[in-house]
Amino acid sequence: MQFQRLRLSGFKSFVDATELRIEPGITGIVGPNGCGKSNLLEALRWVMGANSAKAMRAGGMDDVIFAGSGGRSSRNHAEVVLTIDNAERRAPAAYNDSPVLEVVRRIDRGEGSTYRINGREVRARDVHLLFADASTGSNSPALVRQGQISELIAAKPQNRRMILEEAAGVSGLHTRRHEAELR
Ligand code: ATP
Ligand code: MG
């Protein structure tokens, strides 16, 4: 699965609709301090289901919504759309009738967030499993936050194991085993 495009609207500093095309190969984002480079990576994690305020550098989840600045008033919702090339049909079987996947996460102030895949409302879990199976989860070692390397070095063995399991692509299996045991 190849990420093709990230679209943001009202997410953190990206109050206006913004689109980032992700071509094959390396995509670099450069800009002065505070211009929103880290916010872009956070938008990617967020649409992939990241649910910790810490990963979003936020106090609460509503903090990802544009809070107002430079005379622009705050927004009441934020939306991020991730377009994925599924030409090789690497997504879970349920989505494999489609060569392109569009994952949408939207948050409304005070109401939490909703997810859609190709226009159909899905659970957070469906989004987690979509990416867990492709070993590209929002905690994937492919996404390295600023300061994360030093955190990794200082991590407890158990936390380090979670990172390794995500890298090996088995964390989705853990989720399903846990659910099977509850039945
Ligand atoms: P650096 O080079 O220092 O790492 P950066 O390009 O990664 O900078 P970010 O951390 O992505 O910059 O962006 C920080 C900016 O985003 C700050 O100006 C901050 O005020 C703004 N910001 C963060 N959350 C929101 C929000 N909810 N509403 C409006 N602006 C926000
Ligand atoms: Mg940064």
From TrEMBL:
Transmembrane segments: none
Cell compartments where the protein resides: Cytoplasm
Binding locations of ATP: P32, N33, G34, C35, G36, K37, S38, N39
Protein role: Required for chromosome condensation and partitioning.
Domain comment in the entry: Contains large globular domains required for ATP hydrolysis at each terminus and a third globular domain forming a flexible hinge near the middle of the molecule. These domains are separated by coiled-coil structures.
Family: Belongs to the SMC family.
Subunit (UniProt): Homodimer.
Protein name (record): Chromosome partition protein Smc
Recorded name of the encoding gene: smc
